[in-house]
Specification:
Layout lengths: L13 H10 L3 E5 L5 E2 H17 L7 E5 L4 H12 L3 E5 L5 H11 L3 E4 L1 H6 L7 E4 L12 H11 L11 E7 L7 E6 H10 L11 E4 L6 H12 L4 E4 L6 H11 L3 E4 L1 H17 L10 H15 L6 E4 L6 H10 L3 E6 L6 E5 L8 E3 L6 E10 L2 E12 L6 E2 L3 H7 L6 E9 L5 E6 L4 E2 L5 E2 L1 H9 L4 E9 L2 E8 L1 H12 L5 H8 L1 H18 L6 H24 L8 E6 L23
Parallel strand pairs: 1-10, 3-4, 3-5, 5-6, 9-10, 9-11, 11-12, 12-13, 24-25
Antiparallel strand pairs: 1-2, 7-8, 8-18, 13-14, 15-20, 16-17, 17-19, 19-20, 21-22, 23-24
């Protein structure tokens, strides 16, 4: 860090004050392509907001909700709330109006800071006092009595006494296992996590971060906001969702050194942009040439990200194995972080150049990890798998207004139960195998990790996503075929297989032949060529079923006997997901408890 913080002494309220002292007029927060707020601006604007909250009657410990898309004023709001001694309630902008209302009610927020788009979403609902987020960086009118009063209050602002153990935020998660819950995090939790991350990333005023994940998510907030603001770096935001048409020009113009991502983003980049190009090169079919070609592809990927990336952080969910293998072989500067909202969020991480396939990493500095309930893995007798449990200054105190859930989350001796199953290697590095609640017990008592089975299924060139669950008869896989495969099936049926060569060129010889075989087999089963819309649809559906059976067979060939898939079903609609792009498993068939 460019200046010293102590998580036992300092709070989030100190960040803008120390930033102004150390970095002055250096750029801090800005939209892509626009002028940025300086560190001096950040101190002035956060002080002004703290004074404004005081004029509204907000005192120490009161809750102030924050609902907005990513923008510089989001950071102003967050640190301004801290300087007022209040507790931030960051709400994901994707949450529906009903869920937002429930959070406002449960948290007891007395003020809501919201963007125009979010205020429109909440029209007609009972709300606390509302501050438009757009006003937080606006120039005050000296002729306005109200603005003059605010200016005077900001000039006379005296911060309330604040301790590192005081509550800083209540973060409501939209988890994969059921209802949202309010995770309490203190100033100490956030600062301890930010400081502990020095083992994987150290920023300075030369760094530029392009923010593409929601700031209301703990991963982006700690790593993508707090650490840069503690280091003199600058952060840039997009004014719309990070689709390829928006992201690529922004990367080219900003040329960031730091980007944080969930796995889905880099997986899509690899599978839609990198992999097809590699497979078109004849030499790529020969193993001796693959390392060199993948290294070249990695250099091109770096250039597409602006050419200056030195840290591409990936967190929020496991990275798909094939993509991870490519990134490793391509020497792309990625790092893996593991943690939960309850741990502010990182507790284990691998630095750039220290990553290893499927590894979460060693514990963060200050974090202690242990494995509870260890059991020899049925598929690998050399591994002892247990629940990962954590303690340390980044672990939050529990759930807001929920003592029962808080008690359940901690062991009697004070360790936080992550609910994740994993193992540790001889170097003290942790590997995550799956969720304790999703683990399936095999017929002979074996532990089956559905996430590992899904990773095999998702490696198929035909599969977009999958979800595996168990019942009395064994494992069932819900599989969503890639939309382009479904489209290809329909076209082949209509053209009477005339487009099979095109399919082979598009998907590779083996995949193209598999698609053609599926359509031919379905056509024979139907007893006739595809004449008429109804029969064409029937043949296409049969062909899709043929492909699913092929996917199941290929996966089962690589699985231990006890974890093989008994049945595969087609998932036509996309799976419903959380903001970090994890499938909401609780919405789909589950193992019987």
């Amino acid at each position: 860090m460019a200046y010293h913080f102590d998580y036992d002494r300092d709070t989030l309220a100190d960040i803008p004050v120390k930033g102004a002292e150390s970095f002055g007029d250096l750029p801090a927060l800005g939209m892509a392509g626009a002028e940025a707020l300086s560190y001096r601006d950040l101190e002035r604007l956060t002080r002004r907001l703290a004074a404004r909250l005081g004029l509204l009657g907000v005192g120490k410990g009161d809750r102030v909700a924050l609902l907005s898309e990513n923008r510089p004023e989001w950071g102003v709001a967050s640190l301004g709330i801290a300087r007022a001694g209040a507790v931030a309630v960051p709400i994901l902008a994707d949450f529906p109006a009903e869920q937002v209302s429930n959070i406002l009610s449960h948290s007891g927020a007395s003020v809501l800071i919201a963007s125009a788009r979010q205020r429109k979403k909440l029209e007609g609902r009972a709300l606390p006092a509302v501050i438009p987020v757009e006003e937080l960086a606006a120039t005050l009118d000296p002729e306005s009595p109200e603005d003059a009063r605010l200016e005077a209050a900001a000039a006379a602002f005296a911060p309330p006494p604040l301790a590192s153990s005081d509550l800083a935020a209540i973060v409501y998660t939209s988890g994969t296992t059921g209802l949202s819950k309010g995770v309490m995090l203190t100033h100490r939790n956030y600062l301890a996590d930010a400081l502990g991350c020095e083992i994987i990333i150290v920023l300075d005023p030369r760094d530029v971060l392009l923010s593409i994940l929601p700031l209301a998510h703990a991963y982006e907030y700690t790593i993508g906001f707090l650490i840069p603001m503690m280091s003199g770096a600058q952060v840039r935001y997009l004014d719309r969702p990070p689709s390829a048409s928006v992201l690529l020009p922004a990367l080219a113009s900003i040329r960031p050194t730091i980007v944080l991502s969930v796995p889905l983003v880099i997986e899509k980049v690899y599978k839609s942009g990198v992999k097809p190009g590699l497979e078109k090169i004849p030499l790529y079919r020969l193993p001796p040439f693959r390392p060199f070609l993948e290294f070249i592809a990695g250099r091109k990927l770096m250039r597409s990200f602006g050419g200056r990336i030195r840290f591409f952080g990936i967190g929020g969910a496991p990275l798909e194995p094939e993509t991870e293998r490519f990134l490793l072989r391509a020497r792309f500067p990625f790092a893996i972080g593991y943690g939960l909202t309850e741990t502010a969020p990182i507790i284990a991480a691998s630095a750039v150049g220290k990553t290893k396939s499927r590894m979460a990493g060693p514990p963060l500095r200050g974090a202690e990890l242990r494995l509870a309930g260890r059991k020899i893995a049925a598929d690998d007798p050399s591994l002892e798998v247990g629940e990962i449990q954590a303690r340390g200054p980044m672990v939050g105190p529990g759930y807001y207004k929920d003592p029962a859930r808080t008690a359940e989350a901690f062991t009697e001796d004070g360790w936080f139960r992550t609910g994740d199953l994993g193992y540790m290697d001889g170097k003290g590095r942790y590997f995550v195998r799956g969720r304790l609640k999703t683990m399936i017990l095999g017929a002979s008592g074996e532990n089956i990790y559905p996430e590992e089975v899904e990773a095999l299924l998702n490696a198929s060139p035909f599969v977009a996503e999958s979800l595996v669950y168990g019942d009395e008869e064994g494992l069932t896989a819900l599989v969503q075929l890639k939309p382009e495969i479904v489209e290809e099936l329909g076209e082949l049926v209509k053209e009477g297989l005339a487009g099979a060569e095109r399919a082979a060129a598009r998907w590779g010889q083996a995949a193209g032949q598999a698609v053609r075989h599926a359509v031919e087999s379905a056509g024979r089963t139907a007893g006739a060529a595809a004449h008429g819309a109804g029969e064409a649809y029937h043949v296409a559906e049969k062909a899709a079923a043929e492909l699913l059976e092929r996917v199941k067979k290929e996966a089962n060939e690589k699985l231990a006997a006890f974890s093989r898939i008994r049945k595969v079903e087609r998932q036509v609609e996309p799976f419903e997901k959380t903001p970090t792009q994890k499938i909401k498993r609780f919405l789909y068939p589950q193992k019987q408890e």
